[in-house]
Design a protein that fits this description.
Radius of gyration: 18 Å
Helix content: under 10%
Distance between the termini: 26 Å
Shape: globular
Structural class: mainly beta
Length: about 190
Amino acid sequence: LTIQKLGSGDTTVTVSYDDGDPDDTCALTDTVPSCKLYMPNFHSQDGRFSAIITSDNGTELLAVAGSTKAADGWSGATSAVAGGSETVAVPNVSKNYYNWRSAINCQNVGGVATTLNVSYSGDEEDAYDTASLGVGESTQILVFTETFLPDAWQGGATITAETGAEVACTVGNSRTDGSPSGDWTSQYNAYNK
C-alpha cells in the first residue's frame, strides 16, 4: 500500500483495518511525502481485509494498493476510492466470459450499518441483499459464482447501500484459462452515482 499526500505541510496518516489488526500510522512531510506499508509485514492477519485511510488534518491523500500472487505470476493495482455514494455503477463484470471472472469488493464508508442490494443488468429480477455490513466493514461479491447468471455472461451491476449509507467498491477481474503469466488481471474503481 503506497500513500502520498497531495497538499503541502505535515500530516500523520492512519490506516485502520476492518479485521481487528492494529492500526498503522506514518508521518508525511514535504521532504517525505509518501510511505509504503508492505503486507504482511504491517498487516499480520491472513485473508481479505479492507481499510480506511485518514489524515489527522484533512490533507488530501492518494492511496494505491498493489497485489500479487506469485504462484500464478499475476499482479494488479487499484487506487483507493476517495469517497462513497448510496449507489455505485459497475460497468463491466464477467462470469466466465472468454474465461474472465469478476469479483466486486465493497466497503461501507458511511456512518450507519447497511445491507447492499446487488442487481445485474438484464437480470434485475434476481437482485438480492448481502449480509449486514457495519461501519467500515467490507464484503466480496463473487460474480463468477452467481448461480442465476448464465455461463459466459458479461454485463454491468448496480450496488445500492440501504438505510442511506454510503458504499465504495472496486472490481477485480482475472482470466482463468491457464494461459502463460502476463496481463491476465485487471482492477478498477466502481463509479459513484
